[in-house]
Amino acid sequence: MTRAALASVLLVTAISAGARANDVAPDALIIKGLDLRRAGRSVEALEFFRRAHREAPSPRTLGQMGLVEASLAHWMDADVHLAASLTTPDDAWVHKNRPFLEQALGRAKTHIGELVVGGRPGTTVTFAGRALGALPLAGPVRVVEGDFLLTATAATFKPFSLSVTIKGGSRTAVTIVLEPIAVAAPNPPVTESLAVSEAPASSGRRKTGVALAAAGVGALTWGITWIALDNHDACGSVRSGACGTVYDTRTAGWILAAGGGALALTGGALLLSTFHPANSELALAITPRSLLLQARF
Description:
By secondary structure, the chain is α+β, with helices and mostly antiparallel strands. It contains eight helices and nine strands. The protein folds into three domains: 3-109, Serine Threonine Protein Phosphatase 5, Tetratricopeptide repeat (Alpha Horseshoe), CATH 1.25.40.10; 112-176, Immunoglobulin-like (Sandwich), CATH 2.60.40.1120; 202-296. Strands 3-2-5-6 form a four-stranded antiparallel β-sheet, with no helix packed on it. A three-stranded mixed β-sheet has the order 4-1-7, with no helix packed on it. It is rod-shaped, with a radius of gyration of 49 Å.
């Protein structure tokens, strides 16, 4: 409680006390409250002290309420009322009971901590079900010790929640980090997607098909030539040996011819597939003894 607030409480107390100087009802309520405290009935005693304070506010009623609240572990209320009572040290009752009031106030403060909340300006914060307002807050918030839930909300951000432990006599700082709500990007038109993805694929397939077809035709021609030269000598006769070396190129010629034919067919299939890019499939398998070519357009 600020000094201005305490001064206001005491001013009201002084005015009311002067106006009711001859009223014995508040004193009777206080006596009843004291009897209940001695009997161990603190909750009922607190109600009588509150009634006495409503009838005639005074440093005494504030102190009596604070003492009972401290015994009931109502730490925040005890802190406020005891501090207000101790701001009038010249009051006879306060002067007489000052050690007890200060002891009770010190005990209450050990159970009260401070919470400092930071984060995005405009974020609405709630702590232990109590609305603290929008960030930035005016200053630290005094709260009783314990585990509590802190929540925060802000437009276009996901809700935030965090379990916070408050320790008496210490300060706890929390920085709220909000996660933006993801906004899905619009899907591009289908026609644009096809134009971008299909054109490079068709162009690359066409170039590959031309290269394979050209290489295949060359290898096929070379293989046929070698098959034709088989068993001929350098002069063109068949194994006469008159001109020296006799060519033995049949096996190599068939290999070249078979490989060249496969390459030419593959290249031709790739070229054809560029005219039907969406539905074409091509498969080629070569083994030492077989050639498999499958295509669907």
